[in-house]
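Input.
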Amino acid sequence: MSRKFRLATLLKIRERERDQAGQAVSDALIAIAKMDEAKRDIDQQNRAMDELRKQSSNGLISLGQILDAQRYQLVLAAQAAHIAQDRSLLVQELERRQAKLLKCQQAVKSLEKLRDNRFAAEDELALKKEQERLDEWSNTRVASTSAQSTAEESVARASL
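Output.
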């Protein structure tokens, strides 16, 4: 027996929205991971420049190289600040997308529960009808058997 859920199309739409929201959350997580990786690269470059400046105290590096390293560290600091700002915006966007995903999941879950309840009610009704049909058949059979045995008793009495 093929079951038909009236809201099946709506359920499919909500499932698609949920899947898209899940993909959006995944994309935001990937973007945040890329930002974190960029921040680690900047930190590593900054540490390399610190090492270069430490070597200058030994007199191994010229003043021009020290000034270049300091300028480069200023650029790195600006990039790190920009990345931190972008990351905070991405975290806010991630939270918004996670809230949307939760809302979509709840919508799908409620439609699935509605569908399951509807099918359970249909099953219960079908079982009830089947039981009524079997009871009616049983009552008819008992009545038929009873009428037949009464007729046989009447014939047996008449022959005595």
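The chain has a mean pLDDT of 88.
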